[in-house]
Amino acid sequence: MSRLISTPEYRRLVRSSIRTCSKTMIRARFSVLFLALALAEVSAPWVQPTGTLAQTADQAGQSETWRRNRPAAAAPRPFKLPATREAKLDNGLTIVLVEDRRAPLVTIEAGIPLAPRLFGAGALANYLALSEATADLMTEGAGSLTGSELAREVESLGGRIASSANEDYAEVSAVVVSENLQRMVELFADVVLRPAFPQSEVALHKRNRFERLSVQRQEPAFLAGEMFDKVVYGSHPYALGIPTSQAVRALTRSRIEGFYRSTFSPEGSVLAVVGDFDPTQMEKTIRELFGKWSRAVSHGAVREARITNAARARKIYLIDRPGSEQSDFRIGGLAVKRSDPDYFALLVANAILGAGTGSRLFLNIREQKGYTYDVSSSVSSLKQAGTFFGASETRTEVTVAAIKEMLLEFERIGSQKVGDQELQDAKSFLNGQFALSLSTQGGVADSMLRTRIVGLESDDLERYRTRIDEVTADQVRQAARKYISTVSPTIVVVGDARKLVKELRAIAPVLLFNTEGRRLQLKL
To answer: Residue 94: is its pLDDT beyond 80?
Structure first.
């Protein structure tokens, strides 16, 4: 399929089909096109495969004995991105251009840093509410167009556009057929540089956010994650997953507009373009449209927030959900930021411990013990810090047993050296995930963006596989001892407190909270 997509005949066919579509059919036709492209791009030329199916077919024709033996993993092949053109404008905006003419599509992504600051009491929730609202509303009217006019024009171009915010940066992304690229870039510039923040859309955002707050508070997994981040990150902006209802209520158009002017700046921002376009012309267009983007209005020196690990002893944070037949729990603590030298060793340790159906946690707690349907562990590494944690959802009566088994697996990976096969399996798993993440234009653009915003080297993607393969069994054990704690982990449990608290006290001291995060007196 990838050969077909890269032929001029196919590209002309796609463009002809798009021109003859009625506007009402554009979404349906592009859903099919994007699916076909996603499947085709798995064979992206810069992601080299590690084996072939032909060998297996030949073996099958000779005998059935091959089924009894696991096929040997081929040596990882060199990873090489296509030619990348990078430039930096005088205002501080970095441009990254990756030409990929296999499909008549272009993906555009812009990342604007949201530098975490040191806040006083109560200001953290306001910061999150403002950053979230500002990013979400950027596509609800920009330049001379209202939100509905912008949506209609983007749709008529055969594209889509969206905006959002994460812990480190706000992001605006767009996809469009290459023949309509020029107009999409103009609309994209309006969204980034001239958002209107209409009063009606601000009011709608607030109503919708109140409803989502209510829904989120009913989800045990969300409650567990929210409490975990609060405990681990303390007063840092990373600690708050969602704004409070008071912070949402305080949102106004003038405050959102002021936050945009003081925070959204070309300095440190990155604009990545991947797809079927002329790099020279694209750079010229971006310079014309974004070259006059002025730096944010400064309001004096800002102290950057810092994170310290406050955990000194094992504690359990129990969130009471009376009548619940299940419990959600999360165990972990502060780990590494993305640029930390220990990142890759911890990534491999996590793959062995809880990433995938062949991991230790899955095989023990789910397969052998039958305590849960799913169990896993994760490494979340951001620009300034990160976390490691294991998580699961269990029946109430086996919650404590599952927690104990997870802590035993934490202890084992830090005390016993992993075997060669287990280590290699983890590396193959991670390299496979990496290849899939870069198999689409969006994956490449997103990786280019994140790499530069979090401060990594420009060749980080090309060196990823090598760094994974260089991790040793001793480094895995050292990373586990350092970041996968059994002495002072943060343990969060969401469930029926009356059924859980007595057994949980045998593991660690218990602090009780309601679903709103308020501390309760433990009288159970």
So the answer is: yes
In the numeric block, the tokens 């995060």 are attached to 517
Question: What per-residue string of b and e applies to 469-507 under the rule 16 or more CB within 10 Å gives b?
Answer: bebebebbbbbbebbbbbeebbbbbbbbbebbbeebeeb
| pTM of the predicted protein model | 0.83
Distance CA 33, CA 27 (A): 10
pLDDT tens for residues 43-77? Answer: 455 555 444 444 555 555 556 676 777 677 666 66
Give Dmax (Cα) for the chain. 75
Eight-class DSSP state of 298: P
What's phi and psi for 308, nearest 5 deg?
A: -125, 145
Angstrom distance (rounded) from CA 18 to CA 101: 18
State whether residue 396 is helix, strand or coil: helix
* Tens-digit pLDDT profile for residues 362-389: 999 999 999 999 999 999 999 999 999 9
Task: Tell which wins on pLDDT, 482 or 522.
Answer: 482
Q: Which residues have a Cβ under 8 Å from the Cβ of 335 and sit 6 or more positions away? A: 346, 379, 380, 381, 385, 386, 387, 388, 483
Residue in 73, 96, 105, 6 with CA at minimum distance from that of residue 428 = 73
Q: For residue 43, which of 73, 9, 4, 13 has the smallest C-alpha distance?
A: 4
| Joined tokens for residue 490 | 């943060």
